[in-house]
Design a protein that fits this description.
Layout: H1 3-22, E1 31-39, E2 45-53, H2 56-80, E3 88-93, H3 96-112, H4 149-152, H5 155-163, E4 173-175, E5 184-186
Parallel strand pairs: 2-3
Antiparallel strand pairs: 1-2, 4-5
Helix pairs in contact: 1-2
């Protein structure tokens, strides 16, 4: 894919998304997000990948309504985008959100000690955020809830903070008697 087609794909994705949001008033179109647009090299056709939130029946209804609305959207793109020829728009369902939800559910079930065979089919199309418990190999990004700042930090950082070398406190810090008037950092003796 060339840089030109990548730019056109991104421009089409933005404009189609805005048109669906502002101009199309079909009640059959549910909550839709245009996730990606792929054009063929000669720009004659474009696949419009959409993510739809809702049940399987609502997704089918929304896709049918989107296919009916695409000629209207294509006509509107002619005045917004300067291309010799606006590509034919083919709508496809992007199910990566559902697959991601399924994977997150499997991981959560495995962490809880359940086997993936016990997982029931869910009608939910987006993941529900859940708190993740800390495990042995996790990296520490900050104090956990109920933990003080020093408890979760590695030993070397705690020692450095106690000496004051992070904040310039104590005997370490900038040497005001440096030559040529330039400040230099002097290490604090241990």
């Amino acid at each position: 894919m060339t840089q030109r087609t990548e730019r056109i794909d991104e421009l089409l994705r933005q404009e189609i998304g805005q048109a669906l949001e502002r101009e199309v008033t079909d009640p059959g179109i549910g909550f839709v997000t245009v996730t990606k647009v792929e054009t063929v090299p000669d720009l004659s056709r474009a696949r419009v990948w959409v993510s739809v939130i809702g049940s399987e029946e609502q997704r089918k209804e929304t896709l049918a309504a989107l296919r009916r609305a695409m000629p209207y959207i294509r006509h509107g793109l002619g005045s917004k985008i300067r291309l010799r020829r606006i590509p034919e728009l083919d709508v496809r369902l992007d199910d990566t959100a559902e697959r991601g939800t399924r994977i997150l559910k499997i991981i959560n079930d495995l962490e809880a000690g359940r086997s993936p065979d016990e997982i029931s089919a869910s009608l939910e199309s987006l993941p529900t955020p859940v708190a993740r418990l800390r495990h042995e190999g996790d990296t520490v990004e900050g104090p956990a809830p109920g933990e003080t700042a020093g408890e979760g930090a590695p030993k070397a950082r705690r020692k450095a903070r106690a000496r004051g070398s992070y904040s310039g406190e104590g005997r370490g810090g900038f040497d005001k008697g440096a030559r040529a008037g330039k400040a230099t950092f002097r290490r604090r003796p241990k």
